[in-house]
Design brief:
Order of helices and strands: HEEHEHEEHHEHHHEEEHEEEHHHHE
Helix content: 25-40%
Distance between the termini: 100 Å
Number of helices: 13
Shape: globular
Number of domains: 2
Structural class: alpha/beta
Number of strands: 13
Oligomer: single chain
Strand content: 25-35%
Amino acid sequence: MNNTVFKFKKILLFSFFCLLVPLLTGCWDRDELNDLAFITAAGIDKKTESTIELTVAVYIPKAAGGGGEMGGSGGSSGEGQQVLVRSAEGITLADALSQLQQRFPRKLFWGHTEVFVIDEELAKDKDIRRIVDFIMRHPRTRERSHIFISKQKAKDLFSLKPPLERDLAEVLVELAESKIGVDITMKDLAQMLIGDSEAAVLPYIETLKPQTGQDKKQTIATIVGTAVFKKGKMIGSIDESATRGLLWLRNEIQLAVVTVKPKNSEGHVSMNLLRAESKLIPKIENGNWKITLKSETEDDIVQNETTLDTRNTKTIQMLEQELEQDINEKVKPILDQVQKEMNADIFGFAEAFHRAYPDAWKKYKNNWDDIFPTIEVRLDTTAKIRRPGIVTEPGAFPEQEVREE
């Protein structure tokens, strides 16, 4: 009896493995590495009133491995270059891609695309939500790709030869991750465009002027401000100084050195940001919509040009007040510019009211364009200086010149 059961189990197990064999067919739809062209960056420009131009930078493995001279279309690949730049025109982004594919012997692969650049002319004339739709819908594109708006044509930026990095993609990724401006990924942009306010921001870049005597291509693109969008179209931009205030309002400030000139003192004191946190506190009172920006920051003193003694409590308190005033002075201009002139809620006020007052939001959301410019904003800023540095006294002044606040 036991022998019969054992044989039955063997037959059953053998049959099970036989059924699995047809399923073990391997990667039938695989793409060999040697058959792929890896896109590292893509640029989208306005070509005519009805067409756009797609430009891609493709990684050249031979240039990276062999170090030899490589030729390429568009004049962007030469000695020392590791990318090949090519362009194609189309009615839509998908159409331009199909035209571009005909100019490559390998299949274009989006999985390594780190950067998308849209030129300012296209962003102001066309609804970029159509471009975002293609990028988000494509199965191989990366939601974490960084996106920028360029003052110059994206095609022209891709022809630059960065002195330190491999190509423009690496330059822009490093700039975005350094947090000197807004850092927006494709996923972030899509979420902003479908958000309550339908407003969005993107880092605004332009070509950095090369050093005197250098090749005009031996330079990079750098972040010079922020592009502001409403319902998919660029409606304006804000400069670097106003962008610092924007980062405070969006709770995205991570890197900052604040320099103040204390009253009745010669010289300046510079403080480095250690930690910062901002929170929006909305309130609807007697029909009036108000919001408080509560900001807290901790800083270190990194340079003291004055004769003030930073060991003194009164001196520290005075510097903390100067720091709070500096933060408020950065936030107020961006509020006036965006609320009154642009009427684009890029701060997240709509989402804050929606969370705090869902019933009121449901009733008044269609009137947000009328409500947003009238919102009263109160600034509640607290700054703390944690450490005066390794040297507590002014390092280059004799003791008799050191004074309290």
